[in-house]
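Appendix C: a fully annotated inverse folding record. The material below is reproduced so that readers can follow the format used throughout the book. The structure is listed first as tokens, followed by the designed sequence.
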């Protein structure tokens, strides 16, 4: 897939506030500081489309980006960020849950995991809940340029093995790097292949 156009289409706190035009939605979520905004900018080949920040937890709304006038890329708030406080966390969880459970246009949720770290309990619990609720999702490992190839592959194998204790089969798994652009074509081609079936 070639992205010719990527434009900000609006922010919302709930499903009623999202863009009125009904198009397929591919949403992206992960723990704060997983590199979500950088990945979105890389996928769209447009710096500054999603705001990156040295301060994790900046995305506190559901952001829609219209891609090629055909589908929405949806940037969801990160989960598990402690510094927003209990009320702030509950508010973000409500925004995330409202979108995931109520958006009829969401085709797929991409869950982002940091390739440098062991699978976190919060990530595992989040994905188990997705599975229990029948939410279709895929996994993207981010920051795959930060370690050597063998180190990255070993870490991903370890994390995948941990997930296989809960699933008979893993959803599609992608490796990415916002620095090198690795994984960009694979992820976009995967989205394209799904769009062709809709």
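Designed amino acids, in order:
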């Amino acid at each position: 897939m070639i992205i010719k156009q990527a434009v900000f289409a609006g922010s919302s706190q709930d499903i009623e506030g999202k863009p009125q035009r009904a198009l397929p939605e591919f949403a992206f979520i992960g723990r704060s500081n997983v590199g979500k905004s950088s990945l979105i900018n890389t996928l769209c080949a447009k710096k500054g489309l999603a705001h990156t920040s040295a301060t994790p937890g900046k995305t506190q709304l559901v952001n829609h980006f219209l891609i090629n006038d055909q589908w929405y890329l949806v940037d969801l708030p990160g989960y598990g960020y402690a510094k927003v406080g209990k009320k702030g966390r509950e508010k973000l969880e409500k925004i995330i849950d409202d979108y995931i459970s109520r958006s009829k246009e969401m085709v797929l949720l991409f869950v982002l995991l940091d390739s440098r770290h062991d699978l976190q309990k919060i990530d595992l619990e989040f994905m188990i809940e997705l599975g229990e609720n029948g939410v279709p999702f895929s996994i993207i490992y981010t920051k795959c340029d930060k370690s050597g190839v063998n180190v990255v592959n070993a870490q991903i194998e370890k994390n995948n093995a941990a997930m296989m204790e809960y699933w008979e089969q893993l959803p599609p798994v992608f490796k990415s790097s916002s620095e090198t652009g690795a994984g960009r074509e694979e992820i976009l081609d995967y989205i394209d292949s799904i769009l062709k079936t809709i």
